[in-house]
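Exercise (ungraded).
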Amino acid sequence: MADQYVHQLSPATLFDAAAELAAGDATSTSLCRQLLARHEATDNILNGYRQLESDAILEQAAAADARRSDGKPIGPYDGLPIAIKDNIAVNGQPCGCASRILEGYTAPYDATVVTRLKAAGMICAGRTNMDEFAMGSSTENSAYGHSCNPWNTECVPGGSSGGSAVAVASGQAFAALGSDTGGSIRQPASFCGIVGLKPTYGLVPRYGLVAYASSLDQIGPLTSDVRDAALVLDIIGGYDPMDSTSIPDTRTGFIDALDKGIEGLRIGVPKEYFDVDGLHPEVRQASEAAIRAFSDAGCEVVDVSLPSLRYGVAVYYVIATAEASSNLARYDGIRYGARYPDTDLMSTYFMTREKGFGKEVKRRIILGTYVLSSGYYDAYYLRAQKIRTLVRRDFAEAFKSCDVIIGPTSPTTAFRHGEISDPLQMYLTDIYTVPANLAGNCGISIPYGTDSSGLPIGVQLMGDSLCENNILRAGHWLMESGKS
Amino acid sequence: MASDKQINVEDIAKLARVELTVEEAAEFQKEIESILGYIEELSAVDVEGIEPMAHATAITNVFGEDVPGPQLDREAVLGNAPETLDDELIRVPKVIEDGDGGTH
C-alpha cells in the first residue's frame, strides 16, 4: 500500500484557504508553495500533471498577495490555485489533450471557464494528465505515460480526468477542472476518494474545451468536498454567448443552497443499478449504506426504474464515437499541431494521423466512421439517437417521484494498471455514469468508505436537468454524515 | 439492424484518413467486431415512433449578431502551424499538380 501519496493540503479546501487568506493566516504564495512542495515530492511517481510551471504560478501568487495587502483583492478567491485538465484552453499554455498530434500546440485564447476563474483572481496552476482526447476510463491512454492512483500506485486513478483526480487526492491541488463525456469526472473522483461533479449539459460553457463528443461533453470540478464543488460551479457556470449549447438564464448561487440540508429531498433507488453483473459486493454495500443513512435521517426513499440502463453503454459508444470521428477530422497536420510530412497532401493526412493518434483514439475514430457510413447510419447512429430519447424519458419519469437518484458511481473500485486490456470490457465500466450524459442531467460522485483493500468507494447522486442544488445538498450532507 | 453488417476495418480507416499498421488492422478488426456484437443488442429495442435526440437541450438555431468581435492574435495562431510563410501564411503540402492551371 502506497497511501503515503494520499494527502490533503492544509487548509484542505478552496473554501478554507479563502478564509485563511481573508484572516491573514495564509498568503497566496504560502498556499502555492505548499502544493508545489507536494508536487515535487510525489509527482515523479504519480504523474498527475503533464506540466506545472512553478515560476509562473509564484509570480501570479505574488501579484495576488500584493493586491490583497493593498486592500484591493479581486474577490475572496483571489490568488487561489486550481489545476486544469489538458483539454481546456489557457492562453499561452500548452493544450495537448495528452496527444502526440497536439505536441507543441499552445492555446491562443482562454476557455470561458478559464476567463471566469481568472476574473475571480484564481491561478490556473498546471495541466493535468488525461486519456488522450478524453477517450478512456483509466488514464492509461495518455501519450505522456499513465497516472497512478494515490491510494495504491499499482492501480489506475480512473479516467479520463485521472490527472485532475490524482492532483486533488494527493494534495497537489485544492481543486481541478475536468471534463465528463461519459463519466470522466465522476469515475476518477470515485477511484481517488474525492468529489467529482458533472453539471447539467449547457450549464457550464464549453467554449475552449477541446471537443470529443459535443452533445455529451461537459466541464466540471474535482474537489475534496462538496462545498468546493459548489464554489467552483458558482464561478464557472452560467450562460455564455460563445457556446451555442449554453442554456440562457441559468442561475448560480449553489454554495448558499448547501446549508438547506436534506429535509424534503426524496431519494430514488433504481433497481436496475443494483442488478448489474460485475457490481462488486463492497461497492453495492456502500451504496446501500448511503441509502440507509438518508432513510434514517428522515428522507423518503422510493423505488424508481431506469430500464434503459442496459442499453446505455451501447448507445453511448455509438453516439460518442460518431461525434468523435467528426470532431477529430480537424487534426490533419495542416493548421496546427504536429505534421508528419509525406510526398503529397493525402499521404500527409494519413501519416500525421497514424503517428499523431494513439490506439484508442484510432479505434474510436474507425468505429465512429463506420456507424455514420452509408448503409449503416440508420441501423446504428439514428437508432442510438432514438434510444437516447428513451433514456431521457426514463429519467423524466423517475424524477416525478424523487429528487435525487442514488447508486454506485462505478461497479468496482480502482483496478490495476493493465488489468483491463479488452476495449469492450473497459467501456462497460462506464455503465453507471453514461446515462446522465445521454440525458443531459447532472451527477456527482461522493466518496463513501473504502473496500477491504483500502481503496475508496464512490456513491453517485444524480439530479434532474438544472437541479444541481438537490445533488449538492444531498452530497454535502452524505459526506458530512460519513465523517461522524 | 442490418443483417449484412460486416466491417472491413482497413476500408473504414481509409475513409477516416487513418493509416494502420498490419498488426493494428488485425487487432482492431477483432476488437471492433466484438464491440459491434455488443452494440447489436440495440436492434432489439422497439423505437417505432420515437424521435431521435441529437443533443441534450431543447436549444436550436442560436444566431449571433453579424458584427466583428475580438480576433485571435495572428502571431499566436501562426506559431501553432507546422510550417509558415512570411509570418502571415500557413504553408501546406502541394495540392495541385504542375501544369494543370490551378483549377482543381
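Further reading is listed at the end of the chapter. For now, observe: Chain A has a mean pLDDT of 96. Chain A is about 40% helix and 15% strand.
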